[in-house]
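Action item from last meeting closed. Structure (167 res):
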């Protein structure tokens, strides 16, 4: 016998906020990890045709090898160096990453074509479909749009997506 579990709209909203929060946390973890490729000052330098090596472009460590696949003269690879480098700096702040991802997700949610959302975030697409199976309510201003709550408080510090705490 099939068991059907119907969730309330509030429960689906809560799950959607949790899913967005998880995506935000994953993005923050990856972007703020101390790795050579996540440093503002790391650039790829072509040393031979088809061979590139990551190097540091700070004044203090100009052209020091900082590549995850190459060990320098001290025997330290780029990952080890990035972990201890006093000049390491991420290309975006936490707030910039949050704003970028929030805007991206809101754009995907507001798009009439749900394909890009499903390709990038299948879990979010499933929850959005559960709230609006027709997929026709993408207008932010529609009063009867079940997804309109996602844009409430847009631009406010506390009202943005990703602010909810995961339980």
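Sequence:
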């Amino acid at each position: 016998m099939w068991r059907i579990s119907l969730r309330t709209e509030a429960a689906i909203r809560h799950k959607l906020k949790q899913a967005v929060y998880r995506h935000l946390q994953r993005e923050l973890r990856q972007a703020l990890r101390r790795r050579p490729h996540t440093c503002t000052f790391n650039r790829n330098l072509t040393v031979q045709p088809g061979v590139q090596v990551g190097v540091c472009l700070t004044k203090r460590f100009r052209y020091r090898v900082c590549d995850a696949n190459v060990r320098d003269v001290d025997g330290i690879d780029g990952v080890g160096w990035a972990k201890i480098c006093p000049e390491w700096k991420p290309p975006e702040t936490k707030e910039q990453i949050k704003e970028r991802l929030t805007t991206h997700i809101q754009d995907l949610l507001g798009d009439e074509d749900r394909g890009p959302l499903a390709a990038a975030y299948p879990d979010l697409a499933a929850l959005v479909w559960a709230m609006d199976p027709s997929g026709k309510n993408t207008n932010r201003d529609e009063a009867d749009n079940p997804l309109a709550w996602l844009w409430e408080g847009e631009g406010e510090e506390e009202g943005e997506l990703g602010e909810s705490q995961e339980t």
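Note appended to the action item: The helical segments are 9-31, 78-84, 94-110, 115-120, 122-131.
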